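Lab notebook, bench 4. We co-purified these components, and the gel suggests they stay together. Before we commit to crystallization screens, I want a quick structural picture of the whole thing.
Request: model the full complex, all chains together.
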Amino acid sequence: MIVQRSDPTRFLITPALIVGLFIVSAYGYFAFSSLFLKGLPGTQFVGELTLENYRRVLFTGSNQYVLLSTLWASLVISLITIAIAVPMAMVIVRAKRQWVGNIIMLAIAVTFLSGSVTRAYSWLILLGNKGLVNLGLSGLGIVDAPIRFLYNWTGVGIAISHYLLPFAAFTLIGAVRNLNPSVEEAARSLGAGRATVFWRITMPMLLPGLMVTLVLVYSVALASFLFPMLLGGGKVRMIANQIYDRMFVEYDIPYAAATAVVFLISAFVSIWLISFVAKKVEKAVS
Amino acid sequence: MENLQSSTLQLRKLTKRYSSFDAVRDLDLDVPSGSLLTLLGPSGCGKTTVLRMIAGFLNVTSGQILVDGKDISRSEPNFRDIGMVFQNYALFPHMTVEANVAFGLKMRGVTKEEQVTRVREALEMVQLAHLADRYPSQLSGGQQQRVALARAVVIKPKLLLLDEPLGALDRHLREGLQFELRELQKKLGITSILVTHDQDEALYLSDYIAVMNQGQIEQIDTPIALYDKPRSEFVARFLGVPNIFDARIVSTDAHHATIGLGGHTMPVSNMDGHAAGGECKVAIRPSHIEVVRADDGRLGLPGVVKTAHELGERVVYHVEVNDLKFEANTPRSSNFERFTVGHPVKLVLDPAHTVLLRA
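Here is the predicted assembly.
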């Protein structure tokens, strides 16, 4: 390729560069602060370079617990979400009656467009001890005492999963649409029942799409903040809540920064790990 | 691979009704055991619908699909024992060629050793044994379709369904694979149904051709009979006969008739027992019209050359006879006579190939 030295378009990148530099420097400054100690009220950080904040983040039990439970819960919630999204995407794409697919699509779109706070409070109403779900269950005589959904991982998980569902469903719709139905028909005529076709043909063909979806929803799940705050009631904490508290409750910016840096790195590593495993699985199946 | 126990296929009053129209209506069809029947027709004529109903991918509205006399029209596709080849190959992309071909055997619980032997035999049959470890994406279109063919026949199905199997291939490959497909089908003696809109493919591959139109069979015949004696205007047009004219039947006897065409009378063959005095349509292929000098002694239609195009091995003339425009072909043999535009000529129609169509 010939590079034209006097290409004027390269100057057009300048504004973007300035904005980009501005953003990066803000993050950089925040990360840099993690190497100092908290200053007096009104100042940001003081003292000499130290790794004290990182020591606190990495080697205190409560920090380790929150970090690991954030990573683990995000993975589990993502997998559950995908398990729900796959049949949804299949119905949306393949329903014999178009309107069935359209209604599900509409429901997902409405979910997608409604605000998180609205949804969090909706779940509070639905999942409370005297909420619709528990009233229904006890009314039907299925449970004696109300099931505790709120202020534990169940409720937070339900809400996060509901939040992730549109991301997963919309991504998978494309993947399902790209499936060639003849391939499944061929398997059927060769003697495979519906279940066999689903597990041995459809799912392996969907696998690349599933892996992309997993990485996407996992990244979104890691950043959950609002649902654990509102539905966790202080008992369920994810890392974003911890960073928030350190920033705005304890005013310990360096400590918050160290937490964020550790979280960012572990998020990248875990996403990389998932992609790595995904590639291995794809190889093994094919 | 030893020969299969050939099955017969019968369709009885097969109907597929959608809310707004009938895709297939009261279709009756008999496919003798071991033969290849082609469903030929334009898109939307219902041929693919029939095939998909036989395969079990579409529910039947009413009617029966009898394989060896047993109605399979309500059973699940996986219990029908049918091999199918699709236009887009439909190989399992995540499996090797070998695993693709073995899939049907695995589903039937065939032992591992037998699977290996039968897969190898099937792949040898389509000359792809050396590619057994490849993935479908590493094969050419022609190779993929041969794998699909091996996969379909390795289970020794009662029927082989071919849904435009050569449609996605380029012309050169198509001809080669046509030949292979025909040889294989004959050798194995599998009762087969082919769906295509390509008349050359149909003429080459089939024992019988059923021409379909609007969910019904217009004509079913051997390829040669169909080519020579189309019985309706639709069939004649679909098989590319350009010369179709209104005519009047002057007189008839057992197998012949005399018709009035373009102000002249002509002898023609009369297979369908058309009665004298009626109106009818008459069809003749360009290659069955001889273009001769106007002063030729034979019985014919005098006309004037409107266009003349030399196309490789033949000359295509358009000749006007009293408002009727005929298309005629003359082979460009060593000493043929050229007629130029405006030249008066005479058209000699071959009576054996001048066909009266059903009104």
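Chain B touches chain A at residues 55-57, 76-80, 82-84, 86-88, 90-95, 103-104, 107-108, 135, 148, 151-152, 155, 161 (CB under 8 Å). Worth comparing against the SEC data before the next meeting. Residues 40 and 211 of chain B are 5 Å apart (CA to CA).
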